[in-house]
Every structure is written in C-alpha cells, then in structure tokens.
Amino acid sequence: MKDILRFHPVYQQRVWGGRAIETAFGRQLPAGEVIGESWEIVDRPEAQSVVASGPQAGRTLGELVKTQAAELLGPQWPSDRAFPILVKWLDCRERLSLQVHPPAEQARELGGEPKTENWYIADTAEGGAELTVGLKKGVTREGFERAIIEQRVEDCVHTFRVAEGDSILVHSGQVHAIGPGNLILEIQQNSDSTYRVCDWGRVGLDGRPRELHVHESLKCIQWDDYEPAPVRAAPTSEVIADCDEFRIRRLVLGPGERLSFAAGEQPRILSVVSGRLRVDEGGSLGGELVRGDHALVPYSAGFEAEAGEFGIVLVTENFV
Q1: SS percent in the chain: helix, strand, coil, step 5
Q2: Which of 33, 85, 269, 315 could serve as a FRET partner for 189 with CA atoms 20 to 30 Å apart?
Q3: What ranges in 74-220 are assigned the alpha helix state H?
Q4: Mean pLDDT confidence for 181-187
Q5: So what's the pLDDT on residue 107?
C-alpha cells in the first residue's frame, strides 16, 4: 500500500448542528438536514469510511484493516482490531449537553468504551465562543449531585472563552460541554460512549427529551479535575496534545515549505485546518489537500508535499 488514503465523509444529524461544514469547506450537505458531525475517518460497526480515490477506491477502512493491517498500521497491528482513531468535524450551532466519557475501568463496568479526545477550534462565531471542561475549584461530588437536583450544575463546571487556533485535550472522566458558535476538529479514540449529565431542557430531533445518564456520569467523573487550561493559538509549530492514545502536532507552514514522512515509520493522519498542501505526484491524490481535508498516510507509504500558501496542518501520530 504505497498510496495515501482519502475518504468520503459520513454526515450525522444532530439537534445542535447546522450547515457550517457546507460553507466553511465548500461541500454539499444532504438537503434539509441539520448536520452536527462529519465523520472523516471512522471504522465502527455503525459507520465506515469509504476510500474516495486511487487503487483502494470503494473499499472501507474496516476492510483495509482486516486484509492489509501490516501495510496500513504496521507489522504489530492485529487484523481483528479496529482502526484506533476517529476524526470528526463538529458544527456546534447550539450548546451540546454536559457529558462525560468513561475511563477504562468504569467503561468495563458499564459496558462502554473509554474516549479521550482533542478539540481544535477551527472557527468561532463573531466575538468568540466558549468551552466547558472540568470542575470549578473546590467542587465536590456531594455538591455536584446537589446542583443537579437544584438545576444549577453550570455553577460547578469550568467554562472559558476560546478563539480560532486554540485547542484542549479532554481525557476520559473529564466532564465537558461545547458552547454554541464553535466549528471544531475533534480527534479521538475510536469510541462512541457518552453519558449525559444534563441537556439544558432540550428535546431531540424527534421532539422528545433526550436520554440522560446521571447515575453512569457520577461514576465516571474525575472529582479532582479542576480548571484545566487550553493550549492557546501560537505562531509557531508545537505539540498540542500528547497522551497514551495519540499525539497531535500543529504545524505552521509558510508558502513553499515542505512536509515529508518516510515509509515504514508509522501511520499518520494529516488534517488541513487552513491553507493548502500540494501533494507530490505518485500518490493517489496527485493534487492538493485543502482546508477541511484529511489524509491517512499508511505505515508502508511515504509522503511528500509542499505548502501552497500559509497554512496550518495537524499531524496525528503515535496511535499504534
């Protein structure tokens, strides 16, 4: 497998979504639908990325893992284990629920999956937007439970302003929510286990209140997790997330700067959040990666590209 891989997006309706993915990236979304998530790279039973072009066109990511695991992910990767990362665009026109993902131990107990994720702010509404991650200093489990009953849980959580280029790593067990006006690139463990603490009295697309999981949430929240800080936008390249599950590097590239990876190192995911990359001929792209695009560079493939203008590329690695 010598070619890099691009996939067709899988769009998901969400009650808090909108149409910003269409305008930001020049895409055509399904007519009349409220799209909150675009799953860009996914290997799950309920959703599969399909290769868009090149020799592997039409094949799913799950098929490639099962039949070419060594070439895709390296010689140690078992063919019966799913691709470990899920990449999404989130269009948050309304506030998301206050929620938590289970840490590994609680996930085993509750029948869920752990989920650590990173949010990169690609755009915000005019004047900025907000995120909620973690607890305010001094909040206890007893105080939090009391606040749920009294419907003042917002008093217990850590909310802060964000701007384009900011990011934050959200570990399993951290209570969190995304405020309205955020367009976010979410890079996460391959998981879809979410326990809602509250949903602000909202109803779902079917007109009914969405299910809450207060009992499960209380088992999963880290009660000593106080006021984590985001990584603020910077004019230079840097590591913006580094955890057991993955590492993300934010590369700031000027016109003519080159980006290259040798074959046989490790698989990587490239996400273009601004600017464009001219990919050297020989790969399945034979063209450009532009804002909103993603590419999976297999273990067995090399990669060479040149920045066509000033831009920012996220490189996700160390996930195998």
Answers
A1: 15, 40, 45
A2: 33
A3: 104-110, 141-149, 214-220
A4: 98
A5: 96
Rg (CA), the chain: 20
Residues 6+ apart with CB under 8 A from 270: 277, 289, 294, 295, 296, 297, 303, 313, 314, 315
Contact 167, 119 (CB under 8 A): yes
- Parts of the chain belonging to CATH 2.60.120.10: 7-220, 238-317
Is pTM beyond 0.90? Reply is yes
Give residues with Cβ within 8 angstroms of 31, minimum separation 6: none
What pLDDT was estimated at residue 281? 64
CATH architecture of 238-317: Sandwich (2.60)
The β-bridge partners of 37 are: 12, 90
Three-state SS annotation for 191-242: CCCCEEEECCCCECCCCCECCCCHHHHHHHCCCCCECCCCECCCCCCEEEEE
- Name the percent of the chain lying above pLDDT 70: 98
DSSP designation for 308: S
Binding residues for Zn(2+): 101, 117, 176
Own/partner long-range contacts of 205-208 (Cβ < 8 Å, ≥24 apart) = 205/13, 205/15, 205/34
Active site residues: 196
For the domain covering 7-220, report its CATH number: 2.60.120.10
CA distance 188 to 205: 25
Residue 181 token pair: 């006006």
With cut-offs at 50, 70 and 90, classify the pLDDT of residue 286. Answer: low
Lookup: tokens for 292: 């909103």
Give the model's confidence band at 128: pLDDT under 50 very low, under 70 low, under 90 confident, else very high: confident
Write down the pLDDT at residue 31.
95
- Tokens found for residue 14: 């969400």
Q: Average per-residue pLDDT in the chain?
A: 95
Token digits for 310? 């000033």
